[in-house]
Structure formats: structure tokens, C-alpha cells
Amino acid sequence: MRDAVSLRSARRKPRHTLLSTGVNAWHFAVALLALLLAVPVFVVLGHLFEPSGEVWRHLVDTVLQDYVINSLLLMIGVAIGVLLVGVSTAWLTSMCHFPGRSLFEWALLLPMAIPAYIIAYTYTGLFDFTGPFQTLLREWTGWGYGDYWFPEIRSLEGAALMLSLVLYPYVYLLSRAAFLSQSICVLDVSRTLGNGPWRSFFFVALPLARPAIVAGLSLALMETLADYGTVQYFGVSTFTTGIFRTWYGLNNATAAAQLSALLLLVVFALIMLEKGSRRQARYHHTTQRHQVLTRFQLTRKQGLMAFLICFGALFFGFLLPAGQLLWWAFTTAEESLDGRFLSLISHSLLLAGTASGLALLLALFFSYGKRRHGNWLVLAAVRMAGMGYAIPGTVIAVGVIIPFAAFDNALDAWVRERFGWSSGLLLSGTLAALLFAYLVRFLAVSLQTVDAGLGKIRPTLDEVARSLGSRSGEIVRKVHIPMLKGSLMTALLLVFVDVLKELPATLILRPFNYNTLAVRAYELASDERLADASYAALTIVIVGILPVILLSRSITRSRHAQST
Amino acid sequence: MSIYVKLILVPLLLCLFGPAHASAAGEVNLYSARKENLIKPLLDRFTEETGIAVNLVTGKADTLLQRLQREGRNSPADLLITTDAGRLHRAKTAGVTQAVSSETLNSLVPANFRDPKGHWFGLSLRARPILYVEGKIDPAELSTYEALSDAKWRGRICIRSSNNIYNQSLVASMIAANGKQATTQWAAGLVKNFARPPKGGDRDQIKAAAAGICDIAIANTYYLVGMLTSKDETQRQAAEKMALFWPNQAERGVHVNISGVALTRSAKNREQAIRLLEFLVSKPSQAWYAETNGEYPVRRDVAAGEILNTWGAFKLDSLNLGKLGENNPEAVRLMDRVGWK
Amino acid sequence: MRNQLEVKHASVKYGSQTVVDDVSFELESGAIGCLLGPSGCGKTSLLRAIAGFEPLAEGEILLHGRSVSYPGRTMAPEKRRVGMVFQDFALYPHLTVEKNIAFGLRGLSGKQQSERVRELLGLVGLSGLDKKYPHQLSGGQQQRVALVRAMAPRPEILLLDEPFSGLDVELREQLTREVRTILKREGVTAILVTHDQQEAFSLADSIGVLGKGRLHQWDSGYSLYHQPRDRFVADFIGQGAMIPGRVLRDGQIDSSLGRMKGNFVDQPGEGEAVELLFRPDDIVHDDGSEFTLEIVDKVFQGAEYLYTLALADGNRLLCLVQSHHDHAIGEKIGVRLHVDHVVAFPVEMSPQMDAKYFKIGQFNGRQEPAVRKY
Do domains A61-238+300-330 and A332-564 have the same CATH topology? Predict the structure, then answer.
């Protein structure tokens, strides 16, 4: 009845095969890969069931309480810090007009490039009792030790401040993306319902951006829990310092792993709680009618305030510590730039580039797998794979060493028996093992970012593609990736910078003669040669800045492309 | 998309099959807890002299030990270098080391700075004396570590966190000398005498003392040397305010730890590794530790560096350092109990 | 003529809840069908089952003669060659109109693609907008783009999921007619899901009324209105009044409007209580008639007044009268019956109580909330 147009014959003839939608290849692939990445987490959790002797009684009797309380206080402090700084700057730069806004848009990301322990060193150098600031103060006033009050930088509060200063960009980045993609309509609706701009912000914009804010916050908090360098230097006993004290000092690796496992369970519980509280709420837009964003025009006074808030975050999070590093590099450093230093840079770039690319691919794969075939197995496996972020890098590294070495040795034993020669260590001590550890540790970062972005794409967009004959791969390629460009770039950048800064796993897993910038900076800094560490630290910052600028550019551009 | 894939795949392949298998037979593979810049120059010199290449991974002693243990008989590592005796003892206990019977080593390294069975050897000494602010304290007031728990030092002592291995070793050595109970009491008294909650590294303690926060700092000598030779004027000024006191000279001597080396059980380049071992205790190498890092040579016949010499000769604790490793967990528990952060 | 779509005893379940319950119907090639029902009746689930997004718990679905769904097996939507137009249009914001439409065009050269796109844009009167982005179009334009995008690969069947509900009334009426013209001209087989009977009447050749997952009647609009098979259809389609009656020995029905011959699906026995359906157009205003009833309510509808009239026993009738017959509430007017088929239902067949909502009150489908659940 319909005439056969030339189009029909040209079309791909659908095969008359039926595909079961019950359990399929997707389930297996996603779950298998996620479980593979969760192996180190399982290794850590596995220690829960091993006997660890009398150590627990000792810990409970003496220090455990301190560890728990300090960790909690630190988390609360960092949560307040990153929310205040991250959300306010995100709102200001995305919704308001004020001088310097376009500069702050990307500059506010810069603190991310500074490793937490480095900012801790620089602040101590500046503001400690013996630092130039207080020394100058004493010289001017003639005061001596104990004559005046000055905030102690090396304290719990100080640690919370340091971590907030370098971790707020996670919240800033994710919530800014959320604010930008919010339809202005919902804000207008709120205002017509009688809510002022402030109420609109608190009751409409903020709750709508909640998944993004929570994603950013949870990244910052997980990183806080895993931090060792800062708290160790500041003499704050947290769960993480406790893990290493138990391991190194008490020589009880099992109890240390058990502490890590406990940490994991707490994180898991927190995540579940958050998911539960969100329940059925959906956050993708119900309408497609986007208004072009019109920013609030601030008055001079408001504009100045906005400028000061953003500048404050940038100054204390980046300019001040980077300035101190620069000063050290120029005045006191004995380190020189030579060929070896160039190899540090290339190693760092190679690792960070590869790891961030792989993490992005995995995140896309997992995210899409969850979206399309989200049964409990897939969800649980992906969740487990993302848990690595809360575990200190060293513990993850050991969690990688154990299965890799076990696999290598088992293979070797088999080959010896079968063929009479030794296969040696196939994977252990290679960059593959190191990259695997990075993925385990940082997958959460890209996963959170991609998830948050994907959640905003309405499911009908997938369905319409399927009804038009697109398979999964094509949907991801032609629909998700272009629509998620901003989120994907963000995920790429976050992991890139994280790997650039990553230390403990790199330290223990790297092959022979393979150094990175972070390793160099750490070795010098931990040898209390801060000034010498400044070159490597600065280079991390510089190498980290470039992608930050590129990212910000591309986000802005992708918005323009959609709104013109 | 294909470009993205290439961007990811190409470096990945380079990674996997590139430098990963750099180590070849006949080269010495080294796991070192000594920082790269405190060992690499010596290794380079060794390679220059012998033509034997040395491959290096640095890291924290315990993680390197963990890696060594897990890699088992297939581990590529031939040597393990640590910066304290306790970890060497742990490595031995874990069964990842093997005995070396070298006349050269046995004759050059004093008996208390090597394992009786030859499982590990000290390379350099790290003394942990008492530093005080010159002019504020009469050295006659100082005598022993034990005396630092005296109430007269209330609020006058700076020392870093008990997370640090040097403090753990110090306490372990006191447990060996005075027993658990006496040491617990001593530690409790010492904690009361802290000028502030422990924070920062050894240099920070020296700086704090120089700035007037406390009168006494406990730190390893090479940190003081590092500050005295620093390009940073404030560091130099701070260090110059300090004087050094060798405690316990009338009895067992000042607490020392070592940085040392062990031959791994899985070593596949045993011969080359032992050559490197012997090279590391040769006179020029020994002098290098003193010059570069302000450590004392483990050999008695090698002079310490210029600055170290100004502090004169001193008696050091003759305790076999394996004890430090044995007592380490007890030392940590003890410090936990008395609230030494 | 071959059936383009056959649905045989199809059931869809979400967990233990049955949302589509044993539905069967067929659609000829080139015909336009409609699934009509209140929200939550399962019509969208059925449509999604046809598209392949939902698996069948029971039954079978055949597209162009080949089985695409049966329990345990669901051919993936991307393999079925179905076109779907969603309520929210689901246009890709990152693609131009041209790229959106070309999205499903495979195996064609760039030139063939742009020819097809131009042809389709011309069909819906949007020529020249090919380089625009969706957000630069009006709602009606977006709707038309979504429609031709689904039609572009010439699917076996076009599925329209409440495609007009996001548009304003006037546009909706205009577009409904337009879409029918286009579909008919192109000979496209289509199924529309809607809760709006006007939409269904003006677009579809045959309409299935769904309630609580069951297909009550699959018929033409006319038959649904004048010969509803059960109370649910009678209540849902159009307006009307139910007047109680009783079956007499000769099969006639006695009620307060007199005796008449009824149409039954199953002939009830003598003495059984029944209800008679009277549509507003069954009651004709006639000033000459002796049979007068009191007006208790009236609604102005432009060309007509819809009067609610009270019978002596308290039952009410609806009556549609040209609007120049303007009577006041309380007035008595003369009426007479003009019934081609008397439709009667046994009382115990009277379905769910909630159907009463539609009994007297005017059902306005447009008030259904626009937010849909998945």
C-alpha cells in the first residue's frame, strides 16, 4: 500500500532477531568491569574478618575516640567551608554581573591545582609563629611569645581551612554547571510567586542544584577523609593518620586495613543516607524551553561585595600560596631545572592524561549502563567501584599490590609448572598497575560528574534515538557526548589535576626510575626542604592551570553555541 | 571520537610496554626509603665506576616492604634501603631479606649497626641529641633524655609528633634501657613538659625554640646542619641560636638510628648488589653522607663533616638496633597511652 | 489488506501491578489508531510496549506480520523501525532542525539526506528553518519537527505519545487536523495516545478506549459515542445522562421517559434493572412538545446551550439547544426524544464509581496534568 521509495532499500534491514531485555551483555560488561575496579576496595574490606590481635583494645582505650572526633570535626569544617565558598562563588559568577566576573569564572578553579599538603606548608611558612607575618608583627609591637593571640594555623581549624581552600573548586565547578543549566523560568516562577531573589535562590535554585552540589561536596569530603599530608603536618590525629600509625608504628597492617574498612563503611552509609533522602525527586528539566540566561545587574556596592568574595577565595586559595612558592623558588631554592625535570613533567602529563581519559571512558560506560540497565547488580557494582576515592591512596595502593602480585605469582607458578620457565611479574610494578590504582581512586570523580550531567538529560531523548534505530554506542556518541561536553570536560580535568597531584599510590606503585612532579615535590617537602620543593609544586600548578583555562573556555563556548 | 580514542590509546600502549620493563639482568634494582636526592648521586657514581646500572624506586619503608612481601620470589628488587633500623628488623622478620657474609662489610660496619646474621647493614648514623637555645639554658642543667621529664622543664620542650619514626625509635631505645614502666612514667612527664601540642617536623621544633616558644628542641643533627647551610637567611639565623647537647654521655650514650640496607631474598643480581653494598660503605661514599646530609658515617675511620666536627666526639648508644624494631609497637602504644600526639 | 500492527492479548506488568491487561486490536496499513483513556489507564505503557520500551508479560505484538514482542523476548526498539513522537518532543538541543530530522536517516548519502529533510520540512511548512536550533522555534514548530523526524526513516508505524498536550488549545486543534492530512497523504500507519477525545475523533480512524489497563472498545468515533459497549465507554466518551429503567416481558424498557426498545450486548432478562444512556443530542428542544422539564443548570457553549433538565423522579437529562433559545434556570421547556439506538446497560454492569465523575459534569480532558510518570 505504501510505495517502495528508494529510501527503503537503502536502509539497513533490521535483522529479525529478538533481544531479551532481561539479563544481557550490558549487565555483564558493566558489572564485571565495575567489580574488577572494586577489587582493591574488596581487598580492604576483606581485612575486616581477619584477626588483628590486641591492637583494637589498645586503640579503643586510647586514641580511637580522638581519631573519630577529629575526623568528624574536620569533615564538618570542610563541608561548611567548601559550601560557603563554592556555592556562593558559583552563584555569583553564573547569575550576576560584576567587575571581573569572566576572569573569576576560570580563575576560581585554580586552587584545585595546589596539593593540599603544599598549601599547608606555605601557610605555615607565612603565618606560623616563626613566619614572616608574625615576626613582623612582633618587631612592630615589641610583643613576645604568649603576649598576643594569633590564630594557630597548624590546628584542626587550620587543617579544615587549608582543605576548604583547595577543595572548594569541586563544589564551585559542579554547582556552577548546574546553575548555568537551570532554566531561568523556574526562577521567574518563584519570583512571581512572591519570593525575592534571596528566597528564590534558597528555595528554588539551591534545591534544584542539589544533586550537583552534593556531588561536589561528597568529592571534597571523600578527599578530606583520605588526606594524610595536611593533617599529619598539622599534628591533627584523624582516622587517616591513625591508619598509618597503626600500620607503620604498631606494625599491624591488618588492623590498619580494618580501620580503612571502617572508614569505607561510614562513607557508604553517608552516601546511602543522601540517596535515601533524595528519594524519588527527579532533576532533569521537564521543559526544553530555555530562556537565554540574563544575569542580575548588581549595584556598585553589591558588585564590590561580589568581587571581594570571589577575589578572597582566589587570593587565599591560590595567589597567596602560589606567591609564596614563587618567592621560595626565586630566593632560596637550590634545585635547578634540568633534563631530569623535563622527564618529571612528561611523566606526570602522560600519567594524568591517560588516567583521566580512561576514567572518563569508564565513567561514561558505567553511567550509561546504570541509566539504561540499572538493575541492583549494576548499581551496587558501580557504587563499589566508586568507593576508592575515600580511601587513602596508600591503602588503595596496597589493595592494588595484593591482587596484582597474587595474580602474577599464581600465573608464574602455573607457567613454571607447565612450561618450566618463569613469567615473572607481569603486571606488578608496571604503569598498568599504577593506572589501575588511579582509576580505582579517581573513578568516583569522573563518575559523579558524568552522572550529574547525564541525570539532566531527559530519558525521552534516549528513547527517541532508539526509536530512530540508534544502538547504545550511537546514542552515547551522538546524543550524550555532545550534550554533556561541559560535564565531560569537567570530569576529564578533575581527574587530570587529581592524578597530577596524586602521591601515595604513585610512590609505591611506580616502576623503577619513574618519577613524577608530585613525587619530587613530596620528597623535598617531607625532607623539610620546602623551598626546594617549590619548583616541582609550582610546575604542578602551572601544568594544572592550562587545562583549567581550556576547560572554562570550552564550557563558556558550549553554552554560547546552544544559546545563539 | 576516533581521535579521542587515539589520544588515549597511543600513550597507554607506550605506557604499558615502554619504561615498565626497563630493568635488565645484571643491573641492581633498589627499593629505597631514602629520598632520591639523598641516594641517587651515590648510585650514579657507582654506575660510573663499575658500569653496573642501578634502578631506583623510592617510597615509604613500610609500603616498599609491603610491595616486596607481596611480590614474593618474583620481586625484581635486589636491595632495600630504609632510614631506620626498625624497618630493617621488620623486613628480616618478614623473611624478605637474606644473609650476606662479606668480610669487607663485617669489618667496616660496627657490630651494633648491622644484623648479627648479616641480614642488614647500617650505612649512616642519625643521632638525635638535645638542642637548646644558647644563653637561655646552661648546658650544666642538661644531662640525660630521662631528665627531660623533670618538672623544671614544664612548658619548655618542643618535640614533633609521635607519628614520627625517630621519636618511636627514641622511645623504643629507652624501653630497652629502662623497661616499659619507667619509660611510660618518663613519657608522661615529658608530655607535660611540652611547650605546645606536637606539630611540624624537626626543623619546625628548632625554629620554634629559636623564636622563643620553647627552650629545648629534640631533633636529628642533620636537620640542624641543613638549616645552618640553608640559603634561607631566617633558617640560618634560627639555627645559629641553637646549641647542641649530647645526652647520656655518662652512661649508654646518645640515641642513634641508622639508615641501612638489606639484600632481598628474591635478589636476582646478588653479586652486583653486594658490590653496591660494599661501595656504599667505601670511604668516599661514607664521607658523602656527612657532607651532603649532615649524617654521621657508620665507619669509625671516616671523618664527619665540617659542621658535625664542631660538635665534637660523643658516645653513642651501643644497643643493637634490631631492638628498636622489636620495641617499636610497644613504644607507640606507650605514647598513645600517655597522650603524646 | 495486511495488518500493519497486531496486538494479541497483550499484558504489561510493573512488578505485581498489571497496567495493561489482555489487550487485543489490529491496525490496517495506512490507518490511524488511537488509544484513548484517562491518565493512568495504561495507554502509554501499551504504546511503549509497541515501541519496544516495555516487555510483555503476556500476549504478543506483531509489526508488519513479524512477531516483535512476546513474554521473555522483546525486540529492541532500535530494531523495530518504529517512529515515536514524545509528549515533550525530545528534540536534541545540540542539533539543528536539519540534523534532528536526519538523525534516524541511515545509509543515505549526504545529498539524499538533505533532500529528504527538505521534502519533510516542506510537508509541514517549515522550509527554511533547517539551520535553526530547537529552542529558536515555537512550540508548534517544534512539534512538527518532532513529527517529521519520526517519519523521516519511513517507519513501519508511527507512535504519537500525547503529542499535542504541550500546546495551547487553538494550536492543538489546528495541528491535529494538519497532522492527519500529512499522515494520510504519506500513507503512514500511526497510533496516537491521548486523553482528549476531540483529538482522538479528529485524528483517528479507529479508537480504543482504555480503562484500568483493559481495552473496553475498539471502534470508530461514531460508534463509541452512539453505541458504547459498556458503562465505562459511555461515561468516558461524550456527555450524557443515565436514566434507570426496567426490562419488560417483550424486551422493551420502561423508564420515566416511556417505553422503548434497547440495544444490549447481552440481552438482560425480564424485570432486570437497567440504565439508559441519553446523549444531549438525543433530547431535542421542541416548544410544541407537551413533555416539559425544568431547567436546573445551564452552560453557554457558544453555538449552543447545554441545559440540565430535571425529571419528575429527580433524575437529570442533558439537552443541547441552539443558543438563541435562551431560557432561564427554573423555567420549564418542552422536549422530545430523538433516539436512533437506545443504549442500555444492566445496572450491575455499572463499573467503578469514579466513572460517575463523567456522568453529569462536563469532562474536559485538557485539565489532565501535563507531568507524566514513567
Answer: yes
**Look-up of cell digits 552534593:** A214
Cβ C103 vs Cβ C95: under 8 Å: yes
The tens digit of pLDDT for each residue in B272-296 reads 999 999 999 999 999 888 888 888 9
Strands B256-264, B97-98: pairing kind: antiparallel
Can you say whether the dihedral through the CA atoms of B86, B89, B94, B100 is positive or negative?
A: positive
Above pLDDT 90, what percent of chain A?
Answer: 15
Residue C359 has pLDDT above 70, yes or no: no
* C155 and C43 part of one domain: yes
CA distance A386 to chain C (A): 28
Domains parsed from chain B with CATH numbers: 2-126+257-307 (3.40.190.10), 127-254+321-338 (3.40.190.10)
Annotate A425-442 with three-state secondary structure.
Answer: CCCCCCHHHHHHHHHHHH
Chain A partners (3+ C-beta pairs within 8 A): B, C
Look at chain C and report how many structural domains it folds into.
Answer: 2
DSSP H helix total and E strand total for chain C: 9, 21
**Segments forming the whole domain that contains residue C337:** 239-362
Same domain for C96 and C177: yes
Non-local (6+) Cβ contacts of A531 within 8 A are A328, A329, A331, A332, A333, A334, B230, B231, B232
Residue A11: per-residue pLDDT = 35
ipTM of the complex: 0.81
Please name the helix (run of DSSP H) or strand (run of DSSP E) that holds residue B274, with its range, or none.
helix B270-280
The pLDDT of residue A229: 83
CATH, domain A332-564, list 1.10.3720.10, 3.40.640.10, 2.40.50.1070, 1.10.260.40: 1.10.3720.10
Put simply, the answer to whether A251 touches B90 (Cβ < 8 Å) is yes
| CA separation for the pair A32, A34 (Å, rounded) | 5
Backbone angles phi, psi at A79, to 5 degrees: -60, -50
Sequence-ordered list of residues with C-beta below 8 angstroms from that of B201, at least 6 positions apart, any chain: A233, A528, B160, B164, B223
Q: Are B148 and B214 in contact (CB under 8 A)?
A: no
Chains near C with 3+ CB pairs less than 8 A apart are A
Answer yes or no: do C80 and C132 share one domain.
Answer: yes
Q: In a 3-state reduction of DSSP, which class is residue C345?
A: strand
Element containing residue C342 per DSSP (H, E)? strand C342-346
Residue A207 or C361, more confident? A207
Q: Which residues of B touch A507 (CB under 8 A)?
A: 58-60, 63
Q: For C154, what's the count of Cα atoms within 13 Å in the CB-facing half-sphere?
A: 18
Largest CA distance in chain A: 101
For residues A456 and A284, the answer to whether their CB atoms sit within 8 Å is yes
Check whether A549 has a pLDDT greater than 80.
no
- What is the reported pTM? 0.80
Helices (H), A279-319: 300-314
Q: Which residues of A touch B201 (CB under 8 A)?
A: 233, 528
The answer to whether B155 touches B192, Cβ cutoff 8 Å, is no
User: Which of C123-127, C298-302, C367-371 is predicted with the least confidence, judged by mean pLDDT?
Assistant: C367-371
Look at B60 and A394 and tell me if their CB atoms are within 8 Å. Answer: yes
Q: Same domain, yes or no, for C206 and C272?
A: no
Most confident of A216-225, B258-267, C164-173: B258-267
Residue B205's contacts (CB-CB under 8 Å, 6 or more residues apart) are: B131, B158, B159, B160, B214, B217, B218, B219
Cβ contact A523–B337 (<8 Å): no
- What is d(CA A416, CA A422) in angstroms, rounded to the nearest whole number? 5
Hey, which residues does C296 pair with through a beta bridge?
A: none
What CATH code is assigned to A61-238+300-330? 1.10.3720.10
Residues A396-421: tens digit of each pLDDT: 888 888 898 889 889 888 888 888 88
